[in-house]
Amino acid sequence: MSANTVLYDHPGPRARVRNAVLTVIFGVALAGLLWWVYAKFDQAGQWEGALWQPFTEGATWTQFILPGLRQTLFAALTGMVLSLAFGIIFAVGRLSERRWISIPAGAVVEFFRAVPLLLMIFFIFYGVPFLIQAPVPAFWAVVAGLTLYNGSVLAEAFRAGIRSVPGGQAEAAYAVGLRKSQVMRLILIPQAARAMLPVIVSQLVVLLKDTALGYIVAFPELMQRGVNDLAANRGNIVAAAIVAAAIYIVINSLLSALASWLDQRSQRRGFRAQRRIATGANPAGGIAVVEPQG
Amino acid sequence: MHVFADPTNFDAYLSSFFWILKLTGASAVLALVLGVLLAAMRVSPVPVLRGFGAAWVNTFRNTPLTLVIFFCFFGLYSTLGLSLADDLDLNNFWLGVIGLSAYTAAFVCEALRSGVNTVPAGQAEAARAIGLTFAQTLRIVVLPQATRSVVAPLGSILIALCKNATIVGTIGLMESSNVMKDLINSNGDAVIPIFLVFAGTFAAFLIPTGYFFGWLANRLAVKR
Fold first, then answer.
1. Interface pTM (ipTM) of the complex?
2. According to CATH, what is the number of the domain A57-281?
3. Which of A53, B89, B213, B219 has the lowest tally of Cβ within 10 angstroms?
4. Per-domain residue ranges for chain B?
5. Residue B74 half-sphere exposure, CB side, CA atoms within 13 Å?
């Protein structure tokens, strides 16, 4: 706990006793709180076996949860690939020296970062069919929304990454005769991308969580299948929501652990430039993407 | 623009953003209070509290907000019978506020905690070496530096909170996304203007807010 080294000295005998007393007091208080929650659920009959029993049946998993999870992961992966492409294109565009490229690219990125994802999904799902005279599948409405939003966030992250590669790198590349596109492609982007890897993985967590918005436009992802449809059949909405939340938490915790492992690895290898990016992109330090989107 | 010339539509538009504003305001206050408490728990010397803070953060940071809001309505309200107001809209509003603040508090907590972590350990060591007490170290040395470095992350959390408020529409509150959906469905000939007005309203408020927090953070930054 690095926080403790800043805030506290090593505890002496008196502090240890005080901490032990506080531990007991708060331990009892927390146990009371948990018991109260348990009792509330019990009162509402939420611990009855009939509500939890569906999760021991294979059909619940093969018909509801796993197909939903597959759609969730598929939408998240498609969205991630497209967001990365969108992010790189617009980051490079915004760094362009030609103003007729950089200004529109900047405007697009700023706009899509400021508009709620749900608004975009609704526009694509309900509005675009009027324009193209054909229905838009819920999958593409979700993926397009995710791409525009997360792509814009990644574009900003990439831009910060490219700009924090030491200036000497680009100068040296120009000096050996590379063209501008080659400098970007061969020198700047690879170094920026490597340093931004933890940020990209953390963004994947955001993206995965945002696929749950698909539930609102009836896209059959984990929340739609595993919570809504399952509960419609078995009447166990609270139990289903808790199980689905647990699945999301496990997957996202694994991704977060991967992100911090990548971050620590780049730190250990001593990529000086990269550390500067990580702190520059997120002044609070660490890899936490403090952008709590849906 | 003929859609918004109709007073009924214009009122719906105004009231939808008024809901967003109220959701953002109420949740921001609650999330800040809860986030400070959680952050205090996470850096406290008491293991039980640290565990509770960590569990809260890991639960809410990794669960989709849509599911959190869904649970507030179907779990807290429909199943457990938690009713917060007689008026249906007001009840949904407060259920939304509970969900939004529980979720956002996890991010506030993490921002504050990493803010404390940006203060170099040497600062506190030096403070203790010249004989400051724990309270003095915190008040004079650690917190002033920590608060400056959390301005930018708290700013982006506020902006995200405002955008996330649209998700409360899931449980039937007529906020901006639901009103936009209805207007689009009844005015198929003006889809693009409708989207631009709604999206533009968010952009007009949130882009300047983002720049303001960026400017403020830069101004307050501790030069190390």
1. 0.91
2. 1.10.3720.10
3. B219
4. 2-220
5. 21
Residue of A nearest to B108 (CA): A290
Helices (H) and strands (E) counted in chain A, each on its own, are: 16, 0
Residue of chain A with shortest Cα separation from B42: A3
Rounded-to-integer distance, Cα A118 and Cα B166, Å: 7
Select the residue from B50, B58, B73, B195 to test the A interface by mutation, using most A Cβ atoms within 10 A. Answer: B195
Residues of A with Cβ-Cβ distance to B45 under 8 angstroms:
4, 8, 11, 15, 19, 22
Helices B176-186/B191-220 angle, 10° precision: 160
Which of B67, B176, B210 is facing A245, going by the closest CB pair? Answer: B67
For B53-101, how does the pLDDT look when each residue is reduced to its tens digit (9 = 90+)?
999 999 999 999 999 999 999 888 888 888 888 888 999 999 999 999 9
Please write down the long-range contacts of A82-86, taking CB distance under 8 Å and 24 or more positions apart.
Answer: A82/A143, A82/A146, A82/A147, A82/A151, A83/A146, A83/A147, A83/A150, A83/A151, A83/A154, A83/A203, A83/A207, A84/A151, A84/A154, A84/A200, A85/A151, A86/A147, A86/A148, A86/A151, A86/A152, A86/A154, A86/A155
CATH, range B2-220: 1.10.3720.10
Handedness of CA A183, A184, A190, A191 (dihedral sign): positive
Q: Could you tell me the pTM of the whole model?
A: 0.89
CA B146 to mean position of chain CA atoms: 20
- Residue B150 CB contacts under 8 Å (≥ 6 apart), including other chains: A284, B111, B112, B114, B115
| Nearest Cβ partner for A248 among B63, B156, B188 | B63
The Cα A96–Cα A58 span in angstroms is 55
Domain boundaries, chain A: 1-37, 57-281
Interchain CB contact of B150 with A (< 8 Å): yes
pLDDT in tens, A178-233: 998 899 999 998 888 888 888 888 888 899 999 999 999 989 989 898 888 888 88
A114 with B206: Cβ contact below 8 A: yes
Residue type present at position B175: E
Q: Rounded distance, CA A282 to CA A276, Å? A: 10
Contact check, Cβ <8 Å, B156/A291? yes
Contact B67 A223 (CB under 8 A): yes
Q: Which of B42, B224, B39, B53 is nearest to B149 (CA)?
A: B224
- Any A CB within 8 A of B195 CB: yes
CB contact under 8 A, A3 and B47: no
Q: How far apart are CA A88 and CA B58, in angstroms?
A: 30
| DSSP, res A242 | H
